[in-house]
Amino acid sequence: MIRAAGADSLLVIVPAFNEEAAVGEVVRSIQQFVPGVPVLVIDDGSGDGTVANARLAGAEVLLLPHHLGLGGCVQAGYKLAFELGFQYVIRVDGDGQHDARDIPRIFEKLKTSGCEMVIGSRFLTNNGSRTGAVRALGIHFFRLVLRPILGKAVHDPTSGFVGVNRSALEVFGKSFPLEYPEIEALVVLQRRRFRFEEVPCKMRPRTTGRSSITALKSLYYIAHVLLGVFVNVLKYERRWHRRGGGPARPGG
Amino acid sequence: MEQLLNVTGGLSLLLLTLVLVSVRRAHIRVEYSFSWLIAAGALLALSRNGAFLQRIARLLGIQDAPVALLLIAASVFLLMFFRFSVIISHLRDDNIALAQRLAILEYHIHSAGNDGH
Fold first, then answer.
1. Cα-only R_g, chain A
2. Whole-angstrom Cα distance, residue B19 to residue B73?
3. Looking at beta carbons, which residues of chain A come within 8 Å of B106?
4. Interface probe, candidates A13, A64, A67, A174, chain B, greatest B C-beta count within 10 A
5. Full DSSP string of B30-90
6. What does pLDDT average to over chain A?
7. Would the CB atoms of B104 and A76 count as touching at under 8 Å?
8. Is A58 helix (H, G, I), strand (E, B) or coil?
9. Is any Cβ of chain B less than 8 angstroms from the Cβ of A164?
10. Is A245 left (phi over 0), alpha (psi -120 to 50) or beta?
11. Burial A203-213 (b: 16+ CB within 10 A, else e)
12. pLDDT band at A10, cuts 50/70/90?
């Protein structure tokens, strides 16, 4: 069983759905670059050998009884991490796109900055990470949308390579977007006046499987995320007015 | 107009029968059949009472009573769809929370078993 040890206990969670080809290597690379840190693969109802390969590579596995989608899958990991007493959690996707070499940088930033979330960003430096034209356009669009809401620029709002501290874990355990969670999660944190930072990270192109966001789903993705952001902003405004004009405090 | 009212009355009766049979066979829970029964009953009553329907049509500023009936039926069903969307959203949230709790409890049980050996 994984246990939180020490004041800076870290858990790496790997949400995975039908990632049998990549998940073993993902787990092994995490163990290589952050040795001794427990790895929890959250299986979102895979029908292939994801669970067996994750266990074979040395990861603990949280088995969801059926497919919940990315948000429900990640939130389950956050809930378990919070119950087990972990102070920090870093999410690494099970498809192998995130480079485990960047985990120590995210962890260090989480500890030293004191902010609630650290995002591994492809676009802070020119590190060779590439993304498709449509996706790049979408990312640019959401940067523009989020800038006034968050009060600061976010370079890579769709990045799933994210670290959070215990305060954010507690919030996300209660409220976490269920579909396409990355962008909405930022607004959920903003409602609590939490802070985020970005660190440069490299992301590799997907080598196995397929992205959950296909070309056909792109429009739905944009509309869904925009609506989610809008609803979260409305919730924030309501709280702001109810408290007599003062912004909500962390944990509020 | 008479023919449209008859068709509406017939469909309302059909809906009433369908819902009652479904409740009896436990395909629909009683609490979720209630709104269907009310809607079907209201449509049946309106389709059988032409004078009352005419008054409602005048109140709504509609000249044709059948158009008023269609408008009322559409509004009722839209409201019911909305109500069921709310119910489905709650059920989905509950389902996700339960699935997560089940997974976490199974993890704890499995881990406790491993630690005991």
1. 17
2. 17
3. 63
4. A64
5. HHHHHHHHHHHHHHHHHHH-HHHHHHHHHHHT-S-HHHHHHHHHHHHHHHHHHHHHHHHHH
6. 86
7. yes
8. coil
9. no
10. left
11. beeeeebeeee
12. very high
Continuous segment of H or E residues that includes residue A72 = helix A70-84
Q: What pLDDT is recorded for position A180?
A: 84
Contact A79 B112 (CB under 8 A): no
* Tokens standing for residue A219: 């429009």
Q: Is B99's CB within 8 Å of A64's CB?
A: yes
Contact A76 B114 (CB under 8 A): no
Residue with tokens 């930072």: A197
Domain ranges, ordered by start, for chain A: 10-242
Q: Report the domain count for chain B.
A: 1
Q: Does A178 touch chain B (CB under 8 A)?
A: yes
First to last CA, chain B: 79
Q: What is the pTM of this model?
A: 0.83
A67: contact with B, CB 8 A cutoff: no
Distance CA A20, CA A7 (A): 34
Please say if the pLDDT value at position A129 is more than 70: no
Cβ A1–B112 below 8 Å, yes or no? yes
Amino acid symbol at A228? G
Q: Which domain holds residue B35?
A: 2-116
Residues from chain B contacting residue A60 (CB–CB below 8 Å) = 107
Which is the CATH superfamily of the domain at A10-242?
Spore Coat Polysaccharide Biosynthesis Protein SpsA; Chain A (3.90.550.10)
* Spatial contact of A135 and A59, defined as CB atoms under 8 Å apart: no
Contact status, residue B13 vs residue B44, Cβ threshold 8 Å = yes
* A248 HSE (CA, 13 A, CB side): 19
Diameter of chain A measured on Cα atoms = 55
Q: Give the pLDDT mean for A183-206.
A: 86
ipTM of this complex: 0.83
Contacting A residues, span 71-110, partner chain B, CB-CB under 8 Å: 72, 75-76, 79-80, 83
Identify the helix (H) or strand (E) that includes residue A28.
helix A23-33
